[in-house]
């Protein structure tokens, strides 16, 4: 049944998309701001060394029970130390592209291209992934790189035209990472489909637009559709409820890439909001309600919720994208306005800038 559903969805999606090339949402196609400092000399920071080793990292929840909700401080420290070259590169690329978007200075484009070309030429992140954490790092990095690259690729000034060889090299490498991500996260058993799969789908759909590959686009939408089918009538994701005291946190985390996928689907003529009778809206309303009152999550899990994630604004950056999909009430709009700009490296950087598109009911 799952195979038949996937085949039918592939056919319908291919028919919808066949008539036109893939496009990002309008926010990803904006020109950069032109500021007086736009011509200042920029020295590119040192590029983190390409990570070419096997993707084999400890989980920060090592030793935890099946809920995977108790942080292991020693394992967490080891995870951050071993993955530092990758996360440093994510920050490097996001900061360069954001700086370009806010200044119009083409030297930030040069820094971005040189850095990604170096990693692409080295075949970074293409080795085998020995464990779940290794696979996770690959798709998170791909989400960062592709969502940042799109902003250069689709800018009206076409800044990448100055780098044809590097552009081809980088986009070929991103496509290769996209293939690996599909292989690792597509068609998993339902009990294993959770927030990680949704982040993989976000990385894949952004890469699909970068590379103009319908097969990647379809694979991402297939994972999205599976996610929507998992949302119950009350707006909960059963596989995230398993995280017990972190259930609210992981519902919030799962929602971030799903909102971005819906934006990309809409930009390509697909109504992702209709899936499973408006499942995305049920999920979002449930999470938004939980930001101030987590009692519904406490009741479903039987434990008080850990709300520490609210201390990090990057975890709520998706709300600006949410309010470009749905009409948000004045209270939420005021909450957003007071903390703008909203930043999330793996969702494209400055979400306040990228998500400023037309609203729908």
UniProtKB/TrEMBL annotation:
Q: What is its EC number?
A: 4.2.2.3
Which keywords does the record carry? Lyase, Signal
What sequence ranges are listed for the domain Alginate lyase?
56-296
Tell me where the signal peptide lies.
1-19
| KW tRNA-binding (keyword) present | no
Q: Drop me one GO molecular function for this one.
A: poly(beta-D-mannuronate) lyase activity
EC main class here is lyase
Q: Which Pfam families match?
A: Alginate_lyase
Q: State whether keyword Nucleus applies.
A: no
Record-given protein name: Mannuronate-specific alginate lyase
